[in-house]
Amino acid sequence: MTTSARPTALDVADESAWFKSSHSGDNGGGGCISITALTSRIGIRDSKHPNGPAFVVPDAAWSSLIHEIRSERT
After folding, report:
1. Which of 35, 36, 47, 72 could form an S-S bond across to 13 if both were Cys, CB 3.0 to 4.6 Å?
2. What's the pTM value of the predicted model, to 2 decimals?
3. Is residue 31 over pLDDT 50?
4. Is the pLDDT of residue 57 over 70?
5. Alpha carbon of residue 40 to chain centroid
6. Which H or E element spans position 20?
7. Quick one: pLDDT at residue 30?
8. Half-sphere exposure of residue 31, counting CA atoms within 13 Å on the CB side?
């Protein structure tokens, strides 16, 4: 089995492509993520470690996650 290193955020997209939700506010670098829209995928990184590893997931997986989060709020 071959293992590959997880890409860093900057391997996934340029720094200017990442953004953090306006709902995050200025919480002193707390538990926030940044995302970037890629072609049919979403890049996800830890805002506290912008040069660290990043996850890349299909759009459908991201949409499902957001749907579940929103349904938990109601």
Report:
1. 36
2. 0.76
3. yes
4. yes
5. 14
6. strand 19-20
7. 63
8. 0
Helix (H/G/I), strand (E/B), else coil: 6: coil
Place of tokens 């991201």: 62
pLDDT number for residue 4 = 59
Q: Which residues of 18-32 are buried (b: 16+ CB within 10 A; e: fewer)?
A: beeeeeeeeeeeeee
Tokens 């590959």 belong to residue: 4
From first CA to last CA, the distance across the chain in angstroms is 43
Q: What residues contact 11, with CB distance under 8 A and at least 6 apart?
A: 54
Is residue 17 pLDDT above 80, yes or no?
yes
**What is the DSSP secondary-structure string of 26-63?**
--SS-S-EEEEEETTEEEEEETT-TTSBEEEEEHHHHH
